[in-house]
Specification:
The complex is a heterodimer of chains A (238) and B (102).
Chain A (H helix, E strand, L loop, with lengths): L1 H26 L5 H60 L10 E2 L7 H19 L5 H22 L3 H19 L13 H33 L13
Helix pairs in contact in A: 1-6, 2-6, 3-4, 4-5, 5-6
Chain B lengths: L2 H10 L7 H12 L2 E3 H8 L3 H13 L3 E8 L2 E8 L1 H17 L3
Antiparallel strand pairs in B: 1-3, 2-3
Helix pairs in contact in B: 1-5
Classes of the chains: A mainly alpha (238), B alpha+beta (102).
């Protein structure tokens, strides 16, 4: 009888471990982040191209025309970063892990106040810098800190804890580095937009790789944990 | 725990849940919202036929629900635990813990 109990105990421990590992694994699937990063790069290229076109053909389209085009592009950037990326992730996010299969976790919705707080604190300094109210150094610090805090919060809510944690901590470290005067290489002192994109895409890539390595480790552990003394199901059973 | 108490717990154990692979499937599905066939195969390391048989038993018992859809032209099957499944699993889990206290 005591042997039976010992076996049951081991089974409970194994299953608890498996449950924890499966959650960790599902929370650290980082490759779909590359979709967001690709969209970010596409949007930057789009914005730079549009600004160059507006500058080149500004005389022909007039001041109002130029303003309308830039506003449309900014709206697209905002809309695509949230809605389009969300749709792409839903549709193609699983493709990265087709061989291992798909697992979806119970996620909590990120409240609207968190989005608003993030957008205001992230984009606010961009506008303040554009109108020469806030120097690039402090604007970047606030934007990066806002992004870092939002990633930590959203990662927890969206059950992407590893991803949110690494991306958030790296962004906060960048914010601290910017505050003490460290600048991205090859970037002018008053440049705002370029370093912001370099930081976000760069840390995004680092996060993707780091979390992916962690994810592979967890998967290996799952494979080590999985044997359950497998036996054929009892065909005459329930 | 006395032998009669242990026997009592044994009698309360659900025979559908009391199978290592089925128990593991339910454990995975309680911690996730949804998982597909390939994922369960990867995690459990059983054969396709074996997994299908276990899933069939859980589905017949009403412990899990099956969602079949087409992604492009490829069929895709995913599973969710039902309320009954969750309740039975909790009950079984408590019995198991009673037998093997930490």
């Amino acid at each position: 009888m005591s042997g039976d109990i010992e076996n049951q105990k081991q089974e409970v421990e194994k299953l608890n471990r498996l449950g924890r590992l499966v959650e960790r694994y599902a929370q650290s699937r980082s490759l779909p982040l590359s979709i967001s990063l690709a969209m970010m790069i596409f949007n930057v290229v789009l914005l730079v191209s549009v600004v160059k076109l507006v500058v080149a053909y500004g005389m022909r389209i007039g001041q109002n025309g130029a303003l309308v085009i830039v506003v449309l592009v900014v709206l697209w950037m905002f809309f695509s970063s949230i809605w389009v990326v969300g749709k792409l992730l839903d549709r193609y996010g699983g493709c990265f892990y087709k061989r291992e299969g798909i697992i979806k976790l119970q996620r909590e919705r990120i409240p609207i106040w968190a989005w608003i707080a993030f957008v205001v604190t992230f984009l606010g300094p961009v506008f303040l810098n554009t109108f020469w109210i806030m120097p690039a150094r402090w604007g970047l610090t606030i934007s990066l800190a806002s992004f870092g805090i939002f990633m930590l919060y959203a990662g927890k809510k969206d059950k992407q804890i590893s991803l949110g944690f690494v991306y958030g901590v790296l962004s906060l470290a960048e914010a601290a580095a910017t505050a003490i005067g460290v600048r991205a290489p090859f970037v002018e002192e008053h440049s705002y937009f370029v370093p912001l994109v370099i930081y976000l895409v760069g840390t995004g890539l680092i996060t993707t790789v780091v979390v992916h390595i962690y994810n592979r480790r967890v998967l290996r552990k799952i494979k080590e944990t999985r044997p359950f003394g497998e036996r054929e199901p009892n065909k005459s059973g329930p | 725990m006395s032998e009669s108490q242990i026997n009592q717990v044994h009698n309360n154990i659900n025979r559908i849940v009391h199978e290592p692979v089925r128990l593991a499937i339910l454990k995975i599905l309680t911690s996730a919202k949804e998982a597909d066939f390939n994922f369960l195969l990867t995690v459990l390391g059983v054969t396709k036929g074996n997994l299908a048989t276990h899933i069939n038993k859980l589905e017949t018992a009403g412990f899990i629900e099956v969602k079949k859809e087409f992604r492009g032209k490829i069929p895709h099957t995913s599973y969710r635990i039902t309320k009954t499944g969750r309740r039975q699993f909790q009950k079984y889990w408590e019995n198991l813990k009673a037998l093997a206290p930490e």
